[in-house]
Amino acid sequence: MPRDTTAQAAVRRQRVLVALSNGAFHTSEKLAKRTRIPRTSLAKIIASLRELGIEIEVEPRQGMRLPRAVDLYDKNTLLEAMSLASRGALVRTDVLLTVDSTNRFVADIDAGLPPGAAQLCVAELQNAGRGRRGRSWLAPFGTGICMSVGWQFAEPPPTFSALSLAVGVATVTALRQLGAADVMLKWPNDLMWKGRKLGGILIELRGESAGPAHVVIGLGINMHMPGAVRLALAEQQAALIADMHEILRDRTPTRNIIVAAVVNELIPMLQTFAREGFAPFQGQWQALDAFASATVKVINGPQVTLGIERGVDVDGSLLVDVDGEVRKFVSGEVSLRKS
Question: Which residues have a Cβ under 8 Å from the Cβ of 139 and sit 6 or more positions away?
Protein backbone atom coordinates (compact mmCIF):
# COMPACT_ATOMS: atom_id res chain seq x y z
CA MET A 1 0.00 0.00 0.00
CA PRO A 2 1.60 3.36 -1.02
CA ARG A 3 2.64 5.75 1.67
CA ASP A 4 0.52 8.88 2.10
CA THR A 5 3.33 11.31 1.26
CA THR A 6 1.02 14.34 1.52
CA ALA A 7 0.09 13.52 5.11
CA GLN A 8 3.72 12.70 5.93
CA ALA A 9 4.89 16.03 4.49
CA ALA A 10 2.30 17.89 6.57
CA VAL A 11 3.47 16.17 9.76
CA ARG A 12 7.09 16.97 8.95
CA ARG A 13 6.32 20.63 8.21
CA GLN A 14 4.58 20.88 11.56
CA ARG A 15 7.56 19.33 13.37
CA VAL A 16 9.92 21.85 11.78
CA LEU A 17 7.65 24.78 12.66
CA VAL A 18 7.38 23.64 16.27
CA ALA A 19 11.19 23.42 16.47
CA LEU A 20 11.63 26.88 14.92
CA SER A 21 8.77 28.54 16.84
CA ASN A 22 11.04 29.85 19.63
CA GLY A 23 12.68 32.26 17.16
CA ALA A 24 16.21 31.03 17.96
CA PHE A 25 18.80 29.91 15.41
CA HIS A 26 18.97 26.19 14.66
CA THR A 27 21.70 24.55 12.57
CA SER A 28 20.61 22.00 9.99
CA GLU A 29 22.28 19.27 12.01
CA LYS A 30 20.51 20.14 15.27
CA LEU A 31 17.18 20.72 13.52
CA ALA A 32 17.41 17.35 11.76
CA LYS A 33 18.18 15.63 15.06
CA ARG A 34 15.39 17.38 16.95
CA THR A 35 12.74 16.74 14.31
CA ARG A 36 14.00 13.23 13.37
CA ILE A 37 14.05 14.29 9.72
CA PRO A 38 17.07 13.54 7.47
CA ARG A 39 18.99 16.64 6.44
CA THR A 40 18.40 15.79 2.77
CA SER A 41 14.64 16.01 3.37
CA LEU A 42 14.91 19.02 5.67
CA ALA A 43 15.96 21.34 2.84
CA LYS A 44 12.86 20.39 0.84
CA ILE A 45 10.60 21.02 3.84
CA ILE A 46 12.17 24.45 4.47
CA ALA A 47 11.64 25.27 0.79
CA SER A 48 7.98 24.15 0.98
CA LEU A 49 7.39 26.34 4.06
CA ARG A 50 8.85 29.32 2.23
CA GLU A 51 6.58 28.62 -0.73
CA LEU A 52 3.63 28.88 1.65
CA GLY A 53 4.80 32.38 2.57
CA ILE A 54 6.56 31.61 5.85
CA GLU A 55 9.71 33.71 6.20
CA ILE A 56 12.73 31.69 7.38
CA GLU A 57 16.05 33.50 7.83
CA VAL A 58 19.36 31.73 7.17
CA GLU A 59 22.73 32.96 8.46
CA PRO A 60 26.09 31.31 7.79
CA ARG A 61 27.39 29.28 10.77
CA GLN A 62 24.32 30.22 12.84
CA GLY A 63 21.65 28.29 10.99
CA MET A 64 18.03 29.17 10.36
CA ARG A 65 15.23 30.77 12.33
CA LEU A 66 11.88 32.50 12.15
CA PRO A 67 12.16 36.32 12.36
CA ARG A 68 10.61 36.13 15.84
CA ALA A 69 9.05 33.61 18.20
CA VAL A 70 5.55 32.44 17.25
CA ASP A 71 2.98 30.76 19.48
CA LEU A 72 1.53 28.10 17.21
CA TYR A 73 -2.05 26.91 17.41
CA ASP A 74 -2.44 23.61 19.22
CA LYS A 75 -5.77 21.80 19.28
CA ASN A 76 -5.35 20.25 22.74
CA THR A 77 -4.19 23.55 24.27
CA LEU A 78 -7.05 25.38 22.58
CA LEU A 79 -9.71 23.01 23.86
CA GLU A 80 -8.25 22.87 27.38
CA ALA A 81 -8.46 26.68 27.57
CA MET A 82 -12.20 26.62 26.81
CA SER A 83 -15.04 26.21 29.25
CA LEU A 84 -16.78 22.85 29.55
CA ALA A 85 -19.87 24.40 27.97
CA SER A 86 -17.89 25.56 24.92
CA ARG A 87 -16.23 22.19 24.47
CA GLY A 88 -19.62 20.53 24.77
CA ALA A 89 -21.10 22.75 22.04
CA LEU A 90 -18.25 22.15 19.57
CA VAL A 91 -18.83 19.13 17.35
CA ARG A 92 -15.70 19.75 15.28
CA THR A 93 -12.45 21.70 15.75
CA ASP A 94 -9.92 22.07 12.92
CA VAL A 95 -6.41 23.49 13.40
CA LEU A 96 -4.80 24.01 9.99
CA LEU A 97 -1.42 25.17 8.75
CA THR A 98 -2.80 26.64 5.54
CA VAL A 99 -6.23 27.16 3.98
CA ASP A 100 -7.75 29.38 1.32
CA SER A 101 -10.27 30.82 3.79
CA THR A 102 -11.37 29.62 7.23
CA ASN A 103 -14.90 30.86 6.44
CA ARG A 104 -15.00 28.83 3.24
CA PHE A 105 -13.56 25.78 4.99
CA VAL A 106 -16.27 25.85 7.66
CA ALA A 107 -19.02 26.56 5.12
CA ASP A 108 -17.94 23.68 2.87
CA ILE A 109 -17.66 21.04 5.61
CA ASP A 110 -20.89 19.26 6.33
CA ALA A 111 -20.52 18.73 10.05
CA GLY A 112 -24.15 17.72 10.41
CA LEU A 113 -24.68 20.49 12.93
CA PRO A 114 -27.88 20.23 14.97
CA PRO A 115 -29.36 23.53 16.20
CA GLY A 116 -27.22 24.93 19.01
CA ALA A 117 -24.03 23.14 17.92
CA ALA A 118 -20.85 24.79 16.68
CA GLN A 119 -17.71 24.07 14.70
CA LEU A 120 -14.40 25.96 14.85
CA CYS A 121 -11.54 26.41 12.41
CA VAL A 122 -8.26 28.28 12.96
CA ALA A 123 -5.39 28.49 10.49
CA GLU A 124 -1.82 29.70 10.60
CA LEU A 125 -2.08 30.95 7.02
CA GLN A 126 -4.97 31.74 4.73
CA ASN A 127 -4.29 32.76 1.15
CA ALA A 128 -7.75 33.93 0.15
CA GLY A 129 -9.08 35.46 3.34
CA ARG A 130 -11.75 38.09 2.80
CA GLY A 131 -13.01 41.04 4.71
CA ARG A 132 -16.17 43.05 4.26
CA ARG A 133 -17.11 44.18 0.71
CA GLY A 134 -14.75 41.59 -0.81
CA ARG A 135 -11.53 43.13 0.51
CA SER A 136 -8.67 40.71 1.08
CA TRP A 137 -7.58 40.10 4.69
CA LEU A 138 -3.79 40.18 5.09
CA ALA A 139 -2.43 38.01 7.90
CA PRO A 140 1.12 36.73 7.30
CA PHE A 141 2.30 33.74 9.31
CA GLY A 142 2.11 34.28 13.07
CA THR A 143 0.93 37.90 12.84
CA GLY A 144 -2.76 37.52 13.57
CA ILE A 145 -5.73 35.33 14.39
CA CYS A 146 -7.76 33.86 11.52
CA MET A 147 -10.73 31.96 12.91
CA SER A 148 -14.23 30.95 11.87
CA VAL A 149 -17.11 29.58 13.91
CA GLY A 150 -19.98 27.72 12.29
CA TRP A 151 -23.36 27.73 14.04
CA GLN A 152 -26.74 26.24 13.22
CA PHE A 153 -29.91 28.21 14.00
CA ALA A 154 -33.15 26.20 14.00
CA GLU A 155 -34.58 29.16 12.04
CA PRO A 156 -33.37 32.67 11.24
CA PRO A 157 -33.54 34.51 14.58
CA PRO A 158 -35.21 37.89 15.09
CA THR A 159 -33.14 40.89 13.91
CA PHE A 160 -30.69 38.52 12.18
CA SER A 161 -29.24 41.51 10.33
CA ALA A 162 -27.67 42.67 13.62
CA LEU A 163 -25.74 39.44 14.27
CA SER A 164 -22.36 40.99 13.38
CA LEU A 165 -22.95 43.65 16.07
CA ALA A 166 -23.68 41.01 18.71
CA VAL A 167 -20.55 39.12 17.61
CA GLY A 168 -18.61 42.34 18.11
CA VAL A 169 -19.96 42.68 21.66
CA ALA A 170 -18.97 39.09 22.50
CA THR A 171 -15.49 39.51 20.99
CA VAL A 172 -14.72 42.78 22.75
CA THR A 173 -16.01 41.32 26.02
CA ALA A 174 -13.49 38.49 25.65
CA LEU A 175 -10.59 40.81 24.79
CA ARG A 176 -11.37 43.13 27.69
CA GLN A 177 -11.43 40.17 30.08
CA LEU A 178 -7.90 39.41 28.88
CA GLY A 179 -6.75 42.94 29.73
CA ALA A 180 -7.36 44.93 26.52
CA ALA A 181 -9.51 47.48 28.32
CA ASP A 182 -9.79 50.13 25.60
CA VAL A 183 -11.00 47.97 22.70
CA MET A 184 -14.18 49.42 21.16
CA LEU A 185 -16.53 48.78 18.23
CA LYS A 186 -17.18 50.63 15.00
CA TRP A 187 -20.39 49.99 13.06
CA PRO A 188 -20.98 47.52 11.59
CA ASN A 189 -18.10 45.07 12.06
CA ASP A 190 -14.77 46.60 13.13
CA LEU A 191 -12.81 46.14 16.35
CA MET A 192 -11.06 49.41 17.26
CA TRP A 193 -8.35 50.56 19.65
CA LYS A 194 -7.61 54.26 20.08
CA GLY A 195 -9.01 55.08 16.67
CA ARG A 196 -7.16 52.30 14.86
CA LYS A 197 -8.44 49.01 13.47
CA LEU A 198 -7.66 45.93 15.56
CA GLY A 199 -9.77 43.42 13.67
CA GLY A 200 -12.91 42.68 11.72
CA ILE A 201 -15.93 40.42 11.46
CA LEU A 202 -17.44 38.76 8.39
CA ILE A 203 -20.80 36.95 8.65
CA GLU A 204 -21.95 34.52 5.94
CA LEU A 205 -25.32 32.78 5.92
CA ARG A 206 -26.56 29.62 4.24
CA GLY A 207 -30.24 28.85 4.56
CA GLU A 208 -33.73 29.65 3.38
CA SER A 209 -36.10 32.34 4.65
CA ALA A 210 -37.73 29.65 6.80
CA GLY A 211 -36.13 26.60 8.34
CA PRO A 212 -32.56 25.94 9.56
CA ALA A 213 -29.94 28.63 8.95
CA HIS A 214 -26.22 27.84 9.00
CA VAL A 215 -24.10 30.88 9.77
CA VAL A 216 -20.32 31.20 9.53
CA ILE A 217 -18.69 33.87 11.69
CA GLY A 218 -15.26 34.91 10.47
CA LEU A 219 -12.97 36.83 12.82
CA GLY A 220 -9.63 38.42 12.10
CA ILE A 221 -7.63 39.93 14.97
CA ASN A 222 -4.24 41.56 14.54
CA MET A 223 -1.67 40.08 16.94
CA HIS A 224 1.83 41.25 16.01
CA MET A 225 1.84 43.07 12.68
CA PRO A 226 5.18 44.00 11.05
CA GLY A 227 5.54 47.55 9.77
CA ALA A 228 5.30 46.57 6.10
CA VAL A 229 2.02 44.72 6.69
CA ARG A 230 0.62 47.66 8.66
CA LEU A 231 1.34 49.94 5.71
CA ALA A 232 -0.26 47.53 3.23
CA LEU A 233 -3.39 47.21 5.36
CA ALA A 234 -3.57 50.96 5.92
CA GLU A 235 -3.34 51.60 2.17
CA GLN A 236 -5.92 48.93 1.34
CA GLN A 237 -8.46 49.84 4.00
CA ALA A 238 -7.64 53.54 4.47
CA ALA A 239 -7.32 52.90 8.20
CA LEU A 240 -4.44 52.81 10.66
CA ILE A 241 -3.79 49.43 12.30
CA ALA A 242 -3.43 48.31 15.92
CA ASP A 243 -2.49 44.87 17.26
CA MET A 244 -2.77 42.97 20.53
CA HIS A 245 0.96 43.06 21.23
CA GLU A 246 0.92 46.85 20.98
CA ILE A 247 -1.97 46.96 23.48
CA LEU A 248 -0.75 44.42 26.04
CA ARG A 249 3.01 44.10 25.38
CA ASP A 250 4.50 41.37 27.58
CA ARG A 251 1.04 40.59 28.99
CA THR A 252 -0.25 39.51 25.57
CA PRO A 253 -1.93 36.08 25.85
CA THR A 254 -1.20 33.36 23.32
CA ARG A 255 -3.45 33.00 20.31
CA ASN A 256 -4.79 29.74 21.77
CA ILE A 257 -5.92 31.62 24.89
CA ILE A 258 -7.49 34.45 22.88
CA VAL A 259 -9.39 32.13 20.53
CA ALA A 260 -10.67 30.10 23.49
CA ALA A 261 -11.81 33.27 25.29
CA VAL A 262 -13.66 34.48 22.19
CA VAL A 263 -15.38 31.11 21.71
CA ASN A 264 -16.39 31.14 25.39
CA GLU A 265 -18.25 34.42 24.77
CA LEU A 266 -19.57 33.65 21.29
CA ILE A 267 -21.42 30.45 22.16
CA PRO A 268 -23.64 31.82 24.97
CA MET A 269 -24.20 34.96 22.87
CA LEU A 270 -25.43 32.81 19.96
CA GLN A 271 -27.71 30.84 22.27
CA THR A 272 -29.29 34.07 23.53
CA PHE A 273 -29.43 35.60 20.04
CA ALA A 274 -31.31 32.55 18.74
CA ARG A 275 -34.09 33.24 21.26
CA GLU A 276 -34.14 37.02 21.56
CA GLY A 277 -32.23 38.55 18.68
CA PHE A 278 -30.13 41.69 19.15
CA ALA A 279 -32.23 43.38 21.87
CA PRO A 280 -30.22 41.98 24.86
CA PHE A 281 -26.98 43.27 23.29
CA GLN A 282 -28.08 46.67 22.00
CA GLY A 283 -27.16 48.55 25.19
CA GLN A 284 -23.79 46.80 25.42
CA TRP A 285 -23.02 47.74 21.82
CA GLN A 286 -23.89 51.37 22.49
CA ALA A 287 -21.53 51.41 25.49
CA LEU A 288 -18.70 50.11 23.27
CA ASP A 289 -19.41 52.44 20.34
CA ALA A 290 -16.15 54.15 19.35
CA PHE A 291 -18.02 56.89 17.43
CA ALA A 292 -20.80 57.60 19.94
CA SER A 293 -22.09 61.21 19.58
CA ALA A 294 -19.29 62.01 17.11
CA THR A 295 -19.75 63.86 13.84
CA VAL A 296 -19.41 61.19 11.17
CA LYS A 297 -19.44 60.73 7.41
CA VAL A 298 -21.50 57.81 6.04
CA ILE A 299 -20.65 56.70 2.52
CA ASN A 300 -23.30 54.52 0.88
CA GLY A 301 -22.52 54.11 -2.81
CA PRO A 302 -22.41 57.57 -4.39
CA GLN A 303 -24.28 59.13 -1.44
CA VAL A 304 -22.33 60.86 1.34
CA THR A 305 -24.15 61.88 4.54
CA LEU A 306 -22.79 64.00 7.37
CA GLY A 307 -24.34 63.92 10.82
CA ILE A 308 -24.01 63.01 14.49
CA GLU A 309 -23.83 59.29 15.26
CA ARG A 310 -26.61 58.23 17.66
CA GLY A 311 -25.86 54.52 18.08
CA VAL A 312 -27.84 51.63 16.60
CA ASP A 313 -31.45 50.53 16.37
CA VAL A 314 -32.67 47.13 17.57
CA ASP A 315 -32.36 45.77 13.99
CA GLY A 316 -28.67 46.78 13.89
CA SER A 317 -29.07 49.77 11.59
CA LEU A 318 -26.96 52.86 12.29
CA LEU A 319 -28.73 55.96 13.60
CA VAL A 320 -27.41 59.32 12.43
CA ASP A 321 -28.79 62.73 13.37
CA VAL A 322 -28.80 64.81 10.18
CA ASP A 323 -29.85 68.39 10.94
CA GLY A 324 -32.25 67.25 13.67
CA GLU A 325 -33.68 64.29 11.73
CA VAL A 326 -32.54 60.79 12.80
CA ARG A 327 -31.90 58.65 9.74
CA LYS A 328 -31.30 54.88 9.62
CA PHE A 329 -28.53 53.24 7.58
CA VAL A 330 -28.48 49.49 6.98
CA SER A 331 -25.18 49.54 5.05
CA GLY A 332 -22.33 51.89 4.30
CA GLU A 333 -18.86 52.97 5.36
CA VAL A 334 -18.55 55.18 8.44
CA SER A 335 -15.65 57.45 9.35
CA LEU A 336 -15.08 60.40 11.61
CA ARG A 337 -15.61 63.69 9.85
CA LYS A 338 -12.34 65.57 9.57
CA SER A 339 -12.59 69.19 10.66
Answer: 125, 126, 129, 145, 146, 220, 222
